[in-house]
Amino acid sequence: MEDHMILDMFFARQESAIAETRQKYGKRLFRASKNILHSNEDAEECVNDTLMKAWDAIPPNRPAILGAFLAKIARNLSINKWEAKSAAKRGGGEVNLQLTELEECIEANDGRPEKEFEAAFVSQAINTFLADIDKTARVAFVLRYFHGESVRSISEKFKMSESKIKSILFRTRKKLKTHLEKEGVMV
Amino acid sequence: MIITKQEKVKKLWLCIGDIDDAFLEEVETADIVAEKVVARKKIIKYSTLAAASVGVATTIYFLLRSRRTAASI
């Protein structure tokens, strides 16, 4: 079913809108959530919460891209749940790996506390950065750091070796660091 | 406000969550593999054409050379 038809159902307050959304985006949301939480039950719960949030938000909102709208809700909910879980028990997993990789984008400062940066400014800088890089690097970056896909999973999608993907991501992180420095974000 | 590097990294990770919807849509629709396959097919096509051209040119060269040699004898 087309997105605009699903949105019309949301606007008409037809509960079948949730079923249709689950049918179309459920698997994708579950996967994204599981990449962060590493638990089928928690991921399923996040998908349900995402659909409920979407039900509450539409209307009045009418997202231009329903899939992206749902993905952002699912990511935020999964991160909140991950934070609650990791507060109780600090563990490894894909998220910590991603955070370790992203450290390369932050200017080294000898462990000293640093000034906080403006989130909206950083998001804008990331958007301009992504718009400038080539498509393969951009898709790999989004898959890795937005959707939390593993390097192996990305390499399978791209039909490339894992080392090639690692190298693309490494180069992209370096470019992001340079870009953020140029934009004055991490100073 | 002062924050640690770890908090900063996490903030960066959270900011990635606010990227343009268009980039997320691109991931869903991106046909990277298909594009690579098309590119590879193009390379194969043109390299086959190039190899065939070299083959034809070499054959013509040797034919002409053998005719010239035969004429000189």
Assign the structural class of chain B, choosing from mainly alpha, mainly beta, alpha/beta, alpha+beta, or little secondary structure: mainly alpha
Poorly predicted runs of chain B are none
Secondary-structure element order of chain B, N to C: EHHH
Identify low-pLDDT runs of chain A: none
Major sheet summary line of chain A:
none
For the record, give the distance between the C-alpha atoms at the N and C termini of chain A, rounded to a whole number.
47 Å
- Outline of chain A, from the CA principal axes? globular
Largest sheet of chain B: none
What letter string, H or E per element, gives the SSE order of chain A? Answer: HHHHHEHHHH
Mean pLDDT of chain A: 84
Mean pLDDT of chain B: 81
Termini separation of chain B: 96 Å
Report the strand count of chain B. Answer: 1
Task: Give the largest interface pair and sizes.
Answer: A-B, 46 and 31 residues
Query: Could you give the count of β-strands of chain A?
Result: 1
The number of distinct helices of chain A, counting runs of at least 4 residues, comes to 9
Word description of this protein:
The complex is a heterodimer of chains A (187) and B (73). Chain A is built from 9 helices and 1 strand. Chain A starts with a helix and ends in a 5-residue tail after the last helix. By secondary structure, chain A is mostly helical. Chain B is built from 3 helices and 1 strand, in the order E-H-H-H. In chain B, 85% of the residues lie in helices and 3% in strands. Chain B is mainly α and 73 residues long. Chain B is rod-shaped. Chain A binds chain B through residues 28, 63-65, 67-69, 71-72, 75-76, 79, 98-99, 102-103, 105-106, 109, 111, 113-117, 119-120, 122-123, 126-127, 130-131, 135-136, 138-139, 142-143, 145-147, 157-159, 186, and chain B through 1-6, 8-28, 30, 32-33, 36.
Keywords for this entry:
heterodimer; A: 187 residues; mainly alpha; 9 helices; globular; B: 73 residues; 3 helices
